[in-house]
Amino acid sequence: MALPFKINNISALQTFQFLRFLCFLAISIYFTKVPLSPEDIGSWEMLMFINGALSYFWVTGILQSFLPLSQRSRAFVQHKRVEGKSPELFNAFILLLAFSIAFALLILLMYGYTATHTETPKIPYPGLLIIYFILSNTSPLIEHIFLIQDKPRHIFWYGIISTIVQILAVCVPVMSGMGLEAAIWGLIFVNALRFLFLLFLLFRHAEFRLSMPFILNNLYVGYPIMFSALLSGSTQYVDSLVATIAFDAKDFAIFRYGCKELPFVVMMTSGLNNALIPAFSVKKNIPHVLAEIKTKSLRQMHILYPLSILVMIFSNVLYGRVLFNPEFYRSADVFMVYQLMIISRVVFPQTILIGLKKTRILMWAAIIEIALNIPLSLYLVQYKYGVVGIALGSGLIHILEKFILMWYNYRKLGISPKAYTPLTWYIFYSALIGIVFILIDKRIIYIM
Fold first, then answer.
1. Are 296 and 421 in contact (CB under 8 A)?
2. Percent composition of the chain: helix, strand, coil (DSSP 3-state, to 5)
3. Which residues contact 41 (CB under 8 A, 6 or more apart)?
4. If you placed Cys at 275, which of 10, 129, 159, 195 could pair as Cys (CB 3.0 to 4.6 Å)?
5. What is the total count of domains within the chain?
6. 419: part of which helix (H) or strand (E)?
């Protein structure tokens, strides 16, 4: 079906990221509007947290390192290729599947330990979680297959269809009075369909040739990205881990509902990052790619900063009246602070480093970040800001990490921040959102 507007790989991935966020946001909102108990909502949030926390770092590392290796990898230079088939795809799938099974076994061990040593196991529905974990963490390869094949319309329509089906599969059982367990089975059903679709694509486009050299190369390029993501790459998961230490179950739920960035920010920045990584594989294109990052990031700033400022101002209205019920009103403060994450999102030194396979610095920068993030967040929670302290501490340290990467690009690679960042606009917008935050915090700007 033809689209009435132009779409490319960047906009398609951005749309896909937005739909993924929108899907789980819509489900979370719906769960607060129907007769599900706070305990059921807490169980759902815990399932999503465990699945994400135990997978996001290695899924990110494998897929982002796969992108620059996906085109004619050296591991297959001496092998005759089957026309139209990619052995790289098959090996990436094997790597994702192996990690999925390994971490599913870890979940099983964690459940066994908590069931033995605590009165109430910390992992709800462990059997269903393990099935969902394996299915859901291999399917992200689908959109990356379409990406390397330069099929943005396929990414777009796959995102639209899968989002609609998942919302219906999860919400209809609850609407019918079948309860949370039926909703989880609905989630598993959708991801089983995704997994079958992935197998269809592999049979169509992949050459089933196992290559340990390729897998080891993928891991070599990807392990610094994995460690970087594990330590700092997904702020919400690290912050939620700190929240489990600092808060009881009720405050944890309040924090989890608030620790959400504006979906457009995540959608547009991650889409731009992933879409431009493969372009660095051709060295003569690097100046052009840097200029493209600068141009497209400026376009994002003009859109995302005003939107973030607007939702900061109206965060109380959104949480207290529009989206959730009054029990989650305090989540608005956490949500407001999370909008400051835009300051670190709209600069892209990591895109350059991943594209050039200079990934070790990502790991070391993340180690520095996590070494500062957790103690600072716990300090702000205990002595200053309560539930908001985690978000504030994490935001400050996350900005520091991006500056470390920008410094590395300048000193070690000779790439000035001006080559890929519109610095004047970046400083202006960052200062503006900081001022607005202070005015809201001091109740000079305050809308109920």
1. no
2. 80, 0, 20
3. 31, 32, 253
4. 10
5. 2
6. helix 417-420
Regarding predicted confidence, which is higher, 88 or 402?
A: 402
384-387 own/partner pairs: CB under 8 Å, 24+ apart:
387/243, 387/247, 387/251, 387/254, 387/255, 387/258, 387/330, 387/333, 387/334
| One domain for residues 258 and 195 | no
- pLDDT tens across 376-420, in order? 777 777 766 766 777 777 778 888 888 899 999 999 889 999 999
82: pLDDT strictly greater than 70: no
Q: What is the pLDDT of residues 248-283, one digit of tens each?
A: 656 666 676 677 777 678 777 877 777 777 777 666
Instruction: Show the tokens assigned to 119.
Output: 């009165």
- For the chain, give the mean pLDDT: 80
Q: Does 274 share its domain with 383?
A: yes
441 with 346, same domain: the answer is yes
Asked if residue 1 belongs to a domain, the reply is no
Q: What is the C-alpha to C-alpha distance for residues 53 and 130, in angstroms, rounded to an integer? A: 14
CA separation for the pair 130, 399 (Å, rounded):
35
- Residue 2 included in any domain: no
pLDDT digits (tens, 9 = 90+) for 157-166: 998 999 999 9
Q: How far apart are CA 163 and CA 157, in angstroms?
A: 10
Query: Which of 179, 212, 233 is a domain's end point?
Result: 233
Q: Is the dihedral of CA 173, 177, 179, 182 positive or negative?
A: negative
Residue 406 has what pLDDT? 92
Contact between 129 and 50 (Cβ < 8 Å): yes
Q: Is the pLDDT of residue 227 over 80?
A: no
Pairwise CA distance, residues 53 & 106, whole Å: 12
Q: With CA atoms as reference, report the closest residue to 173 among 190, 186, 191.
A: 186
Query: Do both 304 and 215 map to the same domain?
Result: no
Mean pLDDT of 117-136: 80
Examine the fold and report which residue of 182, 200, 233 is the final residue of a domain before the chain moves on. Answer: 233
Q: Using alpha carbons, select from 339, 175, 322 the residue that is nearest to residue 258.
A: 339
Of how many residues is the chain composed?
448
204 and 344 share one domain: no
Contacts 24+ apart (CB under 8 A), 101-105: 101/134, 103/54, 103/55, 103/58, 103/133, 103/137, 104/130, 104/133, 104/134
